[in-house]
Amino acid sequence: EAPRRSFSPPSAKYGGRHTVTMIPGDGIGPELMLHVKSVFRHACVPVDFEEVHVSSNADEEDIRNAIMAIRRNRVALKGNIETNHNLPPSHKSRNNILRTSLDLYANVIHCKSLPGVVTRHRDVDILIVRENTEGEYSSLEHESVAGVVESLKIITKAKSLRIAEYAFKLAQETGRKKVTAVHKANIMKLGDGLFLQCCKEVAAGYPHITFENMIVDNTTMQLVSRPQQFDVMVMPNLYGNIVNNVCAGLVGGPGLVAGANYGHVYAVFETATRNTGKSIANKNIANPTATLLASCMMLDHLKLHSYATSIRKAVLASMDNENVSLPFSPRLPLPQRPGPGPTGADRPPKGLGTVPWWLPLPPRSGWLPGGVGRLGLSCYRCPPGAGAVGGLGPLQGRAWGLAGPGTLPERAQACHLRRCTRQTSGARARRRKPSRTSFATSASSTGGRWRPRPPWGLCRPLCRCPLHPQLPSQPGVWTQNKPASAQPLAACFCYSGTLVFRVTLY
């Protein structure tokens, strides 16, 4: 679950939909945002994105437009913007300008061990709170004489008290028992000494939460040797950058951990380590997990908890699925790994939905030959779990009932192609004839309930689909002994030109 916060999110507008600013950023950011849009479209998330492009080479007008858009919408999903080191010192980082202009003073990341990711340490569960607006990132430096540069580290009592109060409130809201302040007060006695003193003052108001302090160099050693001892950590800006990256490495890497930047009014969500990933951009191998989890944190912030839970469970379930190869996993060599993007043979027909690559296909279940997996549909009108047939692990229920079509009318039409196993009103009193495309028997012969046969409970098309003639027309009809070099297998459940579900198996 994403960390909670006490500030109220913006209310929905425009027919119950939220508007969120999207900043794709540089490197792999644009392609990761495409995955977020695709997942939100399939899940029918009531969020509209206002896309604003900002890069390291953009002029001041672009960054001003981005700040204005975030102030208008109050919530943003952001990719990292590269900082060009060749520009003069007067050129400030675009990421830093966003954080300071919007007063996003608290950077929060949740480093937690993920299923299916083999790491040296297990059961890691750490909340890291980083002060986001001062410290060494104040961008105050000058060359006093030739060859001598002075960089100023700004620590203020007001902002130190504010971030410490946020950390203890977060620990209280999430049921945490300990807060650790990270510092270097033994050397920087005034700057870090002030920060440590503020943390002690705030800790006195939370006697039920254990408080301890630790020097930053010892902290890094303790993290790589025994990370389970930490619960909530609070620290100044630069130390937070270092500890964030160390903790991300502990749980699997930068592509797996999401982060959030909170202020009193605005919230910006991004990946935890703020990498642009330029070396792997446009190769279709970037791991979208961190960005998707960041979008789930955003949905929790908007109080769209059901959508956030569905997407988060799907991501975590896919991490534990051996049919999906992670970018750093040795399960498959790199050229054979199925990438996340809708490219090549994986591109669905225009206007039709498809299953994203990271959704799990439960192994050894049901009607697919060789135990590859199965898919199940559940009526979107029914409560979650009612009348579900199969299912994508935790994805049964209202939000993910029919993940193929993208529009609600298509979902409603597709819903009539199967019979829910719920008791129907008046079914015992009258005889119902099954559809000529249905396997269901009449209600009177089944005690007032529709009982699908065979067990997958879907209506089988009578003829080959006119939209997808290259695909099998019946569930369970699959190509046997398929060469490894052939295209991915796919099955299509269509009726009257409406796509019910399309699944691609690798």
Automatic annotation (TrEMBL):
<comment type="subunit">
    <text>Heterooligomer of subunits alpha (IDH3A), beta (IDH3B), and gamma (IDH3G) in the apparent ratio of 2:1:1. The heterodimer containing one IDH3A and one IDH3B subunit and the heterodimer containing one IDH3A and one IDH3G subunit assemble into a heterotetramer (which contains two subunits of IDH3A, one of IDH3B and one of IDH3G) and further into the heterooctamer.</text>
</comment>
<keyword id="KW-0547">Nucleotide-binding</keyword>
<dbReference type="GO" id="GO:0005739">
    <property type="term" value="C:mitochondrion"/>
</dbReference>
<dbReference type="GO" id="GO:0005524">
    <property type="term" value="F:ATP binding"/>
</dbReference>
<keyword id="KW-0816">Tricarboxylic acid cycle</keyword>
<keyword id="KW-0067">ATP-binding</keyword>
<feature type="region of interest" description="Disordered">
    <location>
        <begin position="423"/>
        <end position="452"/>
    </location>
</feature>
<dbReference type="InterPro" id="IPR024084">
    <property type="entry name" value="IsoPropMal-DH-like_dom"/>
</dbReference>
<feature type="compositionally biased region" description="Pro residues">
    <location>
        <begin position="330"/>
        <end position="341"/>
    </location>
</feature>
<protein>
    <recommendedName>
        <fullName>Isocitrate dehydrogenase [NAD] subunit, mitochondrial</fullName>
    </recommendedName>
</protein>
<keyword id="KW-0496">Mitochondrion</keyword>
<feature type="compositionally biased region" description="Low complexity">
    <location>
        <begin position="436"/>
        <end position="449"/>
    </location>
</feature>
<dbReference type="GO" id="GO:0006099">
    <property type="term" value="P:tricarboxylic acid cycle"/>
</dbReference>
<dbReference type="GO" id="GO:0000287">
    <property type="term" value="F:magnesium ion binding"/>
</dbReference>
<feature type="region of interest" description="Disordered">
    <location>
        <begin position="329"/>
        <end position="351"/>
    </location>
</feature>
<dbReference type="GO" id="GO:0005730">
    <property type="term" value="C:nucleolus"/>
</dbReference>
<feature type="domain" description="Isopropylmalate dehydrogenase-like">
    <location>
        <begin position="19"/>
        <end position="324"/>
    </location>
</feature>
<comment type="function">
    <text>Regulatory subunit which plays a role in the allosteric regulation of the enzyme catalyzing the decarboxylation of isocitrate (ICT) into alpha-ketoglutarate. The heterodimer composed of the alpha (IDH3A) and beta (IDH3B) subunits and the heterodimer composed of the alpha (IDH3A) and gamma (IDH3G) subunits, have considerable basal activity but the full activity of the heterotetramer (containing two subunits of IDH3A, one of IDH3B and one of IDH3G) requires the assembly and cooperative function of both heterodimers.</text>
</comment>
<dbReference type="GO" id="GO:0051287">
    <property type="term" value="F:NAD binding"/>
</dbReference>
<dbReference type="GO" id="GO:0045242">
    <property type="term" value="C:isocitrate dehydrogenase complex (NAD+)"/>
</dbReference>
<dbReference type="Pfam" id="PF00180">
    <property type="entry name" value="Iso_dh"/>
</dbReference>
<keyword id="KW-0809">Transit peptide</keyword>
<keyword id="KW-0460">Magnesium</keyword>
<comment type="similarity">
    <text>Belongs to the isocitrate and isopropylmalate dehydrogenases family.</text>
</comment>
<dbReference type="InterPro" id="IPR004434">
    <property type="entry name" value="Isocitrate_DH_NAD"/>
</dbReference>
<keyword id="KW-0479">Metal-binding</keyword>
<dbReference type="InterPro" id="IPR019818">
    <property type="entry name" value="IsoCit/isopropylmalate_DH_CS"/>
</dbReference>
<dbReference type="GO" id="GO:0016616">
    <property type="term" value="F:oxidoreductase activity, acting on the CH-OH group of donors, NAD or NADP as acceptor"/>
</dbReference>
<keyword id="KW-0464">Manganese</keyword>
